[in-house]
Amino acid sequence: MYFRILEDLERNGRQVISSAMLAKLGGTNSAQVRKDLSYFGNFGKRGRGYSVADLKETLRGILGLNRSWRVVLVGAGQLGSALFSYKDFNKHGFHVVAILDVDPAKVGKTWDGVTIRAFDKCEQVVRESGAEVAVIVTPSEAAQSAVDRLAKAGVRGFLNFAPCKLTVPESATVRNVNITIELEGLSYALQG
Amino acid sequence: MYFRILEDLERNGRQVISSAMLAKLGGTNSAQVRKDLSYFGNFGKRGRGYSVADLKETLRGILGLNRSWRVVLVGAGQLGSALFSYKDFNKHGFHVVAILDVDPAKVGKTWDGVTIRAFDKCEQVVRESGAEVAVIVTPSEAAQSAVDRLAKAGVRGFLNFAPCKLTVPESATVRNVNITIELEGLSYALQG
Ligand SMILES: NC(=O)c1ccc[n+]([C@@H]2O[C@H](COP(=O)([O-])OP(=O)(O)OC[C@H]3O[C@@H](n4cnc5c(N)ncnc54)[C@H](O)[C@@H]3O)[C@@H](O)[C@H]2O)c1
Ligand SMILES: NC(=O)c1ccc[n+]([C@@H]2O[C@H](COP(=O)([O-])OP(=O)(O)OC[C@H]3O[C@@H](n4cnc5c(N)ncnc54)[C@H](O)[C@@H]3O)[C@@H](O)[C@H]2O)c1
What we know:
Order of helices and strands of chain A: HEHHEHEHHEEEHEHEEH
CATH class of the largest domain in chain A: Alpha Beta
Oligomer: homodimer
Helix content of chain A: 40-55%
Strand content of chain A: 15-25%
CATH architecture of the largest domain in chain A: 3-Layer(aba) Sandwich
Largest sheet of chain A: 7 strands, mixed
Structural class of chain A: alpha/beta
Radius of gyration of chain A: 21 Å
Bound molecules: nicotinamide-adenine-dinucleotide
Shape of chain A: elongated
Strand order of the largest sheet of chain A: 5-6-4-3-7-8-9
């Protein structure tokens, strides 16, 4: 949240910001801001405020936003191909280094230099590519078994687009992008 | 939330459910369940529990999930084409009746019987197609001005995929699917 606010401020050419101002933009209070930021270390002096550029860069490091992740795309279908071409992925440090699919008609094709490999070889592909994160764009019924094999092969992060609940080992993390929930929410709000 | 739980229960062949069980599955308490459900009307009798099938159908009606919406897709690019072919859209009552784009090379092409129209004619297209909901898959910089014109033309619901904040009139609703936030969250969790 703070990171996004700081990005906007920097874009508008602001140099310094007080915790009161940060609180107002973030919808909290100054004490909360100082508490949140102190969690990350000591930034500004009371009374002088925080330097926008320094705070942003430090937050970027802490949030891990400047790290880059090697990504395996699992499912070379409609959404997989849209995500592959999505320029913001790279901007956030997510670089697709491998693509897996079960469809023999797709295996062997190349997207912008990355060859689609057979899911059956996922252990080898994860080892060779060093993939740490998997983006799941398979049909729901295939998603859990794909995730199980990938987690065993060492993948630690999962971004799931299939509308189903996935379980991963303790050592891994899964984030879901569920468009269905947004659709139902929109439908509900419009009925209001 | 209850709707999804009831869907799972029905799939597993369960006929009746008590408010205590519903509370456990939903992570709340029985009193909260009875309060939430009473908002929708009087369903079950204390002691006998709720009929899963009846409760689900009633909730479906109230949540407006069985209504169908006429949708205009704004932006015939990578994500637009993936969403157009997404079968779950129809399952949730969202039917694409029109597609708009500014690229002359795309205008006039047809996707599965729907012709891509020039965004400039959006008022006419919204009137002719009766579109009530717009799915925004344009670049961020074009999104707000597209939404302004569509809201004026009578569109009441917006599902926004562009990574930017959109403002709509009081009478309209916007839901955002922001993949960037999920990416940053995943990156942050993996750094943990
Ligand atoms: N298309 C969309 O706009 C959209 C939007 C939101 C969510 N989703 C979800 O994303 C997923 C993919 O949707 P899509 O529209 O791209 O479908 P799609 O049918 O176009 O693509 C799915 C791909 O997954 C492959 N596949 C099947 N089983 C696999 C496995 N075990 N391992 C690896 N690959 C496998 C298929 O061969 C196919 O290429 C679905 O779960 C869908 O519900 C899609
Ligand atoms: N590709 C993805 O997987 C993905 C994922 C998440 C979010 N997004 C977001 O979705 C949006 C679309 O992404 P994309 O990858 O499909 O881009 P794209 O460039 O493939 O498609 C964008 C389309 O919008 C059209 N367009 C431009 N201005 C317009 C306007 N004023 N009115 C109507 N159409 C207009 C363009 O002509 C083009 O056809 C972007 O905001 C992007 O950040 C994309």
